[in-house]
């Protein structure tokens, strides 16, 4: 399988085959401005020392400070972080927010660490990266397996080292540590706003069936938002596997079940499926909300969903994109569909810099306005360029970045 950064470059090629950009711009946008790797030594609870590898990739800052989350995962490597940083640059341009693109990570299975070890590791990442971070330089946020609490540890460490008093260097912080109202749900809610702006254009009926891969921050919020808006969530999953309940899942009850039992399996009235089977279930709307490379050349012909909303980053490979396009299955791409998270992160950054605190109603209203407008902009580009929504979103983002770079 190709690595995610190669996939991202293949997506870039597919888009720029539809609309060409100047050669000098293409050379610059195809590589990150900077890649940083650090070793993070942690004294473990048993007194031994382990050294973890941490990353920050700063792809492009033509439109503003680098912005993007930090991922903790045992499979995270520099190629994954490079792909995610590149997508962030495009995503911020799609949402038309004043940010560039970056991403961070640590190769670690955080479930194997105690809370003390996790805090030491997180503070170590912030210390190791402190020189390149700052409200006007590079502003990280949460991603897979990183939480508001982790952001508050990192922010605290960074403020001690740098003397920064704005607290605006990390977003996705807890509310009592400078976080924004609405940030927790923002990616799922943003996905809902994008979906709502485009639903009628793709003839998706209200109350349709929904399958969601991933039941974490993004997938969990998406499940409860779609469900509370009358859609029938029939299946969802986590890293251990999924469950199906054709007559609809009570999402709140499933959250409680997972909290009590540590697994989705055994939820009353449901049957167990693997993550691979889940993706191929008959449904109206499929919402990948876990990791990259889930829909590939191999399973794309077997996908039965009528419409796909990509809330995870990079869940569909470029080969699978071609197959889905040929099969007439619309895909609303990650850089539009999940841009609600970085948009509200940017609101948090702005509130911290200005010393303000906005209400959740204000935050969500601003988010809705942006995502409505940009969803329609991308849709219209897909019509005028006679292409799919991913290539249209790439083209709009590249136009905006190229303009800032003087092309
Ligand atoms: P999370 O850690 O809160 O949740 C991830 C979920 O995916 C968990 O339910 C986990 O069990 C599940 N999972 C892990 N491995 C899996 C596998 N192999 N198969 C199926 N499920 C698996 O992370 P998150 O913040 O919800 O992020 C999910 C996706 O959304 C990622 O691609 C992330 O980059 C993207 N995203 C997140 C945000 C955000 O604001 N958190 C914003 C934009 C995009």
Task: Produce a short descriptive summary.
The protein has 14 helices and twelve strands. By secondary structure, the chain is of the alpha/beta class. Bound molecules: nicotinamide-adenine-dinucleotide.
Topology:
Elements lengths: L3 H15 L4 H7 L4 E10 L5 E12 L5 E8 L4 H17 L6 E7 L7 H15 L8 E5 L5 H15 L23 H13 L10 E5 L3 H12 L3 E7 L2 E4 L6 H11 L9 E3 L1 H5 L5 E4 L18 E3 L8 H9 L4 E2 L1 H4 L1 H16 L5 H25 L4 H16 L3
Parallel strand pairs: 3-4, 3-5, 6-7, 6-10, 10-11, 11-12
Antiparallel strand pairs: 1-2, 2-4, 7-8, 8-9
Helix pairs in contact: 1-3, 1-14, 3-14, 4-5, 6-7, 6-12, 6-13, 12-13, 13-14
Bound molecules: nicotinamide-adenine-dinucleotide (NAD).
Please tell me about this protein's structure.
It is a single chain. It contains 14 helices and twelve strands. The chain has helices at residues 4-18, 23-29, 78-94, 115-129, 148-162, 186-198, 217-228, 251-261, 275-279, 318-326, 334-337, 339-354, 360-384, 389-404; strands at residues 34-43, 49-60, 66-73, 101-107, 138-142, 209-213, 232-238, 241-244, 271-273, 285-288, 307-309, 331-332. α3 (78-94) links the parallel β3 and β4 (101-107). α3 (78-94) packs across α14. Nicotinamide-adenine-dinucleotide (NAD) binds next to α7 and β7.
What attributes characterize this protein structure?
407 residues; alpha/beta; Rossmann fold; 2 domains; 5-stranded mixed beta sheet; 14 helices; 12 strands; globular; binds nicotinamide-adenine-dinucleotide
